[in-house]
Protein backbone atom coordinates (compact mmCIF):
# COMPACT_ATOMS: atom_id res chain seq x y z
CA UNK A 1 0.00 0.00 0.00
CA UNK A 2 1.40 3.41 -0.94
CA UNK A 3 2.06 6.07 1.68
CA UNK A 4 -0.78 8.24 0.39
CA UNK A 5 -3.22 5.31 0.48
CA UNK A 6 -2.17 4.44 4.02
CA UNK A 7 -2.68 8.03 5.18
CA UNK A 8 -6.09 8.15 3.49
CA UNK A 9 -7.21 4.87 5.06
CA UNK A 10 -6.30 6.18 8.50
CA UNK A 11 -8.14 9.44 7.91
CA UNK A 12 -11.39 7.94 6.59
CA UNK A 13 -12.83 7.00 10.02
CA UNK A 14 -12.14 10.52 11.30
CA UNK A 15 -13.72 12.09 8.21
CA UNK A 16 -16.80 9.87 8.59
CA UNK A 17 -17.15 10.82 12.26
CA UNK A 18 -16.84 14.52 11.40
CA UNK A 19 -19.50 14.24 8.69
CA UNK A 20 -21.83 12.51 11.14
CA UNK A 21 -21.44 15.30 13.68
CA UNK A 22 -21.99 17.98 11.05
CA UNK A 23 -25.09 16.30 9.63
CA UNK A 24 -26.83 15.42 12.91
CA UNK A 25 -28.34 18.88 13.62
CA UNK A 26 -29.59 19.15 10.04
CA UNK A 27 -31.18 15.71 10.23
CA UNK A 28 -32.83 16.59 13.53
CA UNK A 29 -34.44 19.64 11.98
CA UNK A 30 -35.69 17.91 8.82
CA UNK A 31 -39.32 18.40 9.77
CA UNK A 32 -40.61 19.15 6.25
CA UNK A 33 -41.13 15.43 5.61
CA UNK A 34 -44.37 14.41 7.37
CA UNK A 35 -43.11 10.84 7.67
CA UNK A 36 -39.78 11.86 9.16
CA UNK A 37 -38.82 10.95 12.71
CA UNK A 38 -35.45 11.45 14.42
CA UNK A 39 -33.64 8.17 14.77
CA UNK A 40 -30.62 6.92 16.68
CA UNK A 41 -29.58 5.69 20.07
CA UNK A 42 -28.10 7.41 23.10
CA UNK A 43 -25.34 9.88 22.27
CA UNK A 44 -22.94 11.96 24.32
CA UNK A 45 -23.08 15.03 22.10
CA UNK A 46 -21.49 18.21 23.46
CA UNK A 47 -19.89 21.32 22.08
CA UNK A 48 -16.73 21.69 24.15
CA UNK A 49 -14.73 20.47 27.13
CA UNK A 50 -16.46 20.53 30.51
CA UNK A 51 -13.25 21.20 32.45
CA UNK A 52 -13.67 24.98 32.42
CA UNK A 53 -16.54 27.47 32.08
CA UNK A 54 -17.45 29.00 28.75
CA UNK A 55 -16.17 32.51 28.10
CA UNK A 56 -18.50 34.83 29.98
CA UNK A 57 -19.45 32.32 32.67
CA UNK A 58 -17.37 34.09 35.28
CA UNK A 59 -19.80 34.55 38.19
CA UNK A 60 -18.63 31.39 39.95
CA UNK A 61 -15.41 30.29 38.27
CA UNK A 62 -13.68 29.44 41.54
CA UNK A 63 -16.25 26.76 42.29
CA UNK A 64 -17.02 25.65 38.76
CA UNK A 65 -17.82 21.95 38.75
CA UNK A 66 -17.02 21.47 42.43
CA UNK A 67 -20.52 20.53 43.56
CA UNK A 68 -22.41 17.50 42.24
CA UNK A 69 -25.58 18.02 40.23
CA UNK A 70 -28.54 16.85 42.31
CA UNK A 71 -31.43 17.66 39.96
CA UNK A 72 -31.86 17.09 36.22
CA UNK A 73 -34.13 17.98 33.32
CA UNK A 74 -35.15 15.75 30.46
CA UNK A 75 -36.50 17.72 27.49
CA UNK A 76 -38.55 15.71 25.03
CA UNK A 77 -38.68 17.15 21.50
CA UNK A 78 -41.26 16.53 18.81
CA UNK A 79 -42.47 18.11 15.57
CA UNK A 80 -45.55 20.05 16.63
CA UNK A 81 -46.98 20.19 13.09
CA UNK A 82 -46.67 16.43 12.64
CA UNK A 83 -49.63 14.55 14.13
CA UNK A 84 -47.74 11.27 14.46
CA UNK A 85 -44.76 12.93 16.14
CA UNK A 86 -47.01 14.86 18.54
CA UNK A 87 -48.98 11.72 19.39
CA UNK A 88 -45.77 9.81 20.12
CA UNK A 89 -44.56 12.58 22.44
CA UNK A 90 -47.88 12.54 24.29
CA UNK A 91 -47.67 8.75 24.57
CA UNK A 92 -44.29 9.05 26.25
CA UNK A 93 -45.46 11.80 28.59
CA UNK A 94 -48.50 9.79 29.69
CA UNK A 95 -46.21 6.81 30.21
CA UNK A 96 -44.05 8.92 32.52
CA UNK A 97 -47.11 10.08 34.48
CA UNK A 98 -48.33 6.49 34.81
CA UNK A 99 -44.91 5.24 35.94
CA UNK A 100 -44.71 7.97 38.59
CA UNK A 101 -48.19 7.00 39.74
CA UNK A 102 -47.07 3.37 40.11
CA UNK A 103 -44.13 4.49 42.24
CA UNK A 104 -41.45 3.37 39.79
CA UNK A 105 -39.58 6.67 40.14
CA UNK A 106 -40.16 10.31 41.06
CA UNK A 107 -40.44 12.79 38.21
CA UNK A 108 -42.47 15.91 37.51
CA UNK A 109 -43.88 16.86 34.12
CA UNK A 110 -47.14 18.24 32.76
CA UNK A 111 -49.84 15.89 34.01
CA UNK A 112 -48.27 15.06 37.37
CA UNK A 113 -50.27 16.32 40.36
CA UNK A 114 -50.88 15.32 43.98
CA UNK A 115 -53.14 12.45 42.95
CA UNK A 116 -50.21 11.00 40.99
CA UNK A 117 -47.39 12.01 43.36
CA UNK A 118 -48.53 12.36 47.00
CA UNK A 119 -47.02 15.40 48.73
CA UNK A 120 -46.54 17.31 45.49
CA UNK A 121 -48.29 20.68 45.66
CA UNK A 122 -46.55 22.77 42.98
CA UNK A 123 -48.78 21.89 40.04
CA UNK A 124 -49.03 25.54 38.99
CA UNK A 125 -45.23 25.69 38.64
CA UNK A 126 -44.97 22.79 36.19
CA UNK A 127 -44.14 24.05 32.67
CA UNK A 128 -46.79 23.27 30.03
CA UNK A 129 -46.24 21.30 26.87
CA UNK A 130 -44.73 23.72 24.35
CA UNK A 131 -46.48 23.45 20.99
CA UNK A 132 -43.67 25.27 19.24
CA UNK A 133 -40.25 26.83 19.90
CA UNK A 134 -39.84 28.30 23.38
CA UNK A 135 -36.73 29.60 25.12
CA UNK A 136 -33.70 27.65 23.92
CA UNK A 137 -35.86 24.82 22.61
CA UNK A 138 -36.31 24.92 18.80
CA UNK A 139 -39.44 22.77 18.41
CA UNK A 140 -42.35 21.34 20.34
CA UNK A 141 -41.12 20.09 23.71
CA UNK A 142 -41.85 19.43 27.35
CA UNK A 143 -39.75 19.29 30.49
CA UNK A 144 -39.38 16.38 32.91
CA UNK A 145 -37.74 17.17 36.27
CA UNK A 146 -35.96 14.30 38.02
CA UNK A 147 -33.99 14.36 41.30
CA UNK A 148 -30.68 12.51 41.49
CA UNK A 149 -32.19 9.86 43.79
CA UNK A 150 -34.34 8.63 40.90
CA UNK A 151 -32.17 9.49 37.90
CA UNK A 152 -31.17 5.90 37.14
CA UNK A 153 -34.71 4.52 36.93
CA UNK A 154 -35.98 7.58 35.04
CA UNK A 155 -33.15 7.33 32.51
CA UNK A 156 -33.82 3.63 32.04
CA UNK A 157 -37.48 4.39 31.38
CA UNK A 158 -36.58 7.05 28.82
CA UNK A 159 -34.12 4.78 27.02
CA UNK A 160 -36.62 1.94 26.76
CA UNK A 161 -39.73 3.98 26.00
CA UNK A 162 -38.74 7.16 24.13
CA UNK A 163 -39.91 5.74 20.80
CA UNK A 164 -39.20 8.19 17.97
CA UNK A 165 -38.67 11.20 20.25
CA UNK A 166 -35.36 12.99 20.74
CA UNK A 167 -34.60 13.49 24.43
CA UNK A 168 -32.10 15.93 25.94
CA UNK A 169 -30.76 15.28 29.44
CA UNK A 170 -28.93 18.03 31.32
CA UNK A 171 -28.07 18.81 34.94
CA UNK A 172 -29.70 21.64 36.83
CA UNK A 173 -26.99 23.88 38.30
CA UNK A 174 -26.08 27.55 38.60
CA UNK A 175 -24.40 27.37 35.18
CA UNK A 176 -27.41 27.16 32.85
CA UNK A 177 -25.51 27.90 29.63
CA UNK A 178 -23.01 25.16 30.36
CA UNK A 179 -25.83 22.85 31.47
CA UNK A 180 -27.45 23.16 28.02
CA UNK A 181 -24.23 22.83 25.99
CA UNK A 182 -21.15 21.10 27.41
CA UNK A 183 -22.98 18.96 29.95
CA UNK A 184 -25.78 17.52 27.85
CA UNK A 185 -26.54 13.98 26.74
CA UNK A 186 -28.91 13.04 23.92
CA UNK A 187 -31.11 10.05 23.21
CA UNK A 188 -31.97 10.16 19.53
CA UNK A 189 -30.91 12.77 17.00
CA UNK A 190 -29.75 16.02 18.66
CA UNK A 191 -31.53 19.30 17.97
CA UNK A 192 -29.84 22.70 17.73
CA UNK A 193 -30.29 24.50 21.06
CA UNK A 194 -30.50 28.30 20.92
CA UNK A 195 -28.06 29.24 23.67
CA UNK A 196 -28.41 32.97 22.89
CA UNK A 197 -31.56 33.12 25.04
CA UNK A 198 -29.69 31.74 28.06
CA UNK A 199 -27.86 34.04 30.46
CA UNK A 200 -24.69 33.52 32.45
CA UNK A 201 -25.92 35.29 35.58
CA UNK A 202 -27.17 32.97 38.30
CA UNK A 203 -30.43 34.87 38.77
CA UNK A 204 -31.49 34.00 35.22
CA UNK A 205 -30.93 30.26 35.69
CA UNK A 206 -33.44 27.76 37.01
CA UNK A 207 -33.48 27.35 40.78
CA UNK A 208 -33.84 24.06 42.69
CA UNK A 209 -37.38 22.84 42.16
CA UNK A 210 -40.22 21.21 44.09
CA UNK A 211 -38.70 21.52 47.55
CA UNK A 212 -41.75 19.93 49.20
CA UNK A 213 -40.65 16.53 47.88
CA UNK A 214 -37.47 16.62 49.97
CA UNK A 215 -35.32 15.34 47.11
CA UNK A 216 -32.44 16.64 45.01
CA UNK A 217 -31.05 19.88 46.39
CA UNK A 218 -33.76 19.78 49.06
CA UNK A 219 -32.84 16.26 50.19
CA UNK A 220 -32.24 15.43 53.82
CA UNK A 221 -28.66 16.10 54.86
CA UNK A 222 -27.75 17.81 51.58
CA UNK A 223 -25.22 20.58 51.99
CA UNK A 224 -25.26 22.88 48.99
CA UNK A 225 -24.29 26.52 48.55
CA UNK A 226 -26.97 26.95 45.88
TrEMBL record:
Keywords recorded for this protein, A-Z: Signal
SUPFAM superfamilies: DOPA-like
Protein name: DOPA 4,5-dioxygenase
Signal sequence residues: 1-30
Pfam family, one: DOPA_dioxygen
InterPro entries documented for this protein: DOPA-like_sf (IPR023389), DOPA_dioxygen (IPR014980)
Organism taxonomic ancestry: Eukaryota, Sar, Stramenopiles, Ochrophyta, Bolidophyceae
